[in-house]
């Protein structure tokens, strides 16, 4: 077993190696002076079962290209099996056409990963589970919900309601709610344009309750913060939020800070840089 990583999330790769008691594979993923990616794999991988840990988070195109080049080099170096470990799968939100002439970028990315030479993919909390079917190689689709549930169980919160911030997230919310023996509620969200969220209604009883909003990812934090505001207006007593993937782009940090959310629990599928690490964030490891 050999484990390699690019520059997307080396800390997570190190944590996984420590857990497995396997040293991190010797590879240098750098840049040529014109910005192209350079790669040197400094140990034999012939006949090895190789795992490449590389979420395709921001900068998504660089991280994706590093992943493809790593897989290509390992294939040409006669690795026996190559598993692309992609804890966060970038472009997952472009998984179907919603308007004429839209791309299906999530499928294009699947084609690229397969063409590069991956034998298997391991990923977590895909924005749309159907992306598994974009691959003709095995996909292991893991979820961080048990890790999030353990964290909230330890807080021993009472009168708990788990809230899905949109209709698409109901199964995820139910999964968490069952583990916490909580009720669920659903926010009826609308997106008039990309990256803009509007709350229409709250379906379920939240007055006087402690609520936990759960999502696959927090990007600009519009969804989660608008949801929190609506929950507060409906009389929620205290508000928590959690997600697997802290994308945290644009105004996310300011929005979270200004929101009525007490605590935002996130996993380390994506590294959170120091300048985005607001005091409200709690970090859990998926290693
Ligand atoms: C949408 O369906 C996703 O599950 C997230 O709710 C959404 O992508 C979060 O984006 P933002 O934080 O920018 O509202």
From TrEMBL:
Mg(2+) binds at residues 127, 166. The keyword Endoplasmic reticulum does not apply. GO terms for biological process: 5-phosphoribose 1-diphosphate biosynthetic process; purine nucleotide biosynthetic process. It catalyses: D-ribose 5-phosphate + ATP = 5-phospho-alpha-D-ribose 1-diphosphate + AMP + H(+). Its EC number is 2.7.6.1. Its cofactor is Mg(2+). GO terms for molecular function: ATP binding; kinase activity; magnesium ion binding; ribose phosphate diphosphokinase activity. Binds 2 Mg(2+) ions per subunit. The active site is at residue 189. Pathway: Metabolic intermediate biosynthesis; 5-phospho-alpha-D-ribose 1-diphosphate biosynthesis; 5-phospho-alpha-D-ribose 1-diphosphate from D-ribose 5-phosphate (route I): step 1/1. GO terms for cellular component: cytoplasm; ribose phosphate diphosphokinase complex. Gene3D superfamilies: 3.40.50.2020. It is found in: Cytoplasm. D-ribose 5-phosphate binds at residues 191, 215, 219-223. Keywords: ATP-binding, Cytoplasm, Kinase, Magnesium, Metal-binding, Nucleotide biosynthesis, Nucleotide-binding, Transferase. SMART domains: Pribosyltran_N (SM01400). Residues 1-117 form the Ribose-phosphate pyrophosphokinase N-terminal domain. The keyword Membrane does not apply. Belongs to the ribose-phosphate pyrophosphokinase family. Class I subfamily. HAMAP family: RibP_PPkinase_B (MF_00583_B). Involved in the biosynthesis of the central metabolite phospho-alpha-D-ribosyl-1-pyrophosphate (PRPP) via the transfer of pyrophosphoryl group from ATP to 1-hydroxyl of ribose-5-phosphate (Rib-5-P). Homohexamer. NCBIfam families: PRK01259.1, ribP_PPkin. This is Ribose-phosphate pyrophosphokinase. It comes from Thermanaeromonas toyohensis ToBE. The gene is prs.
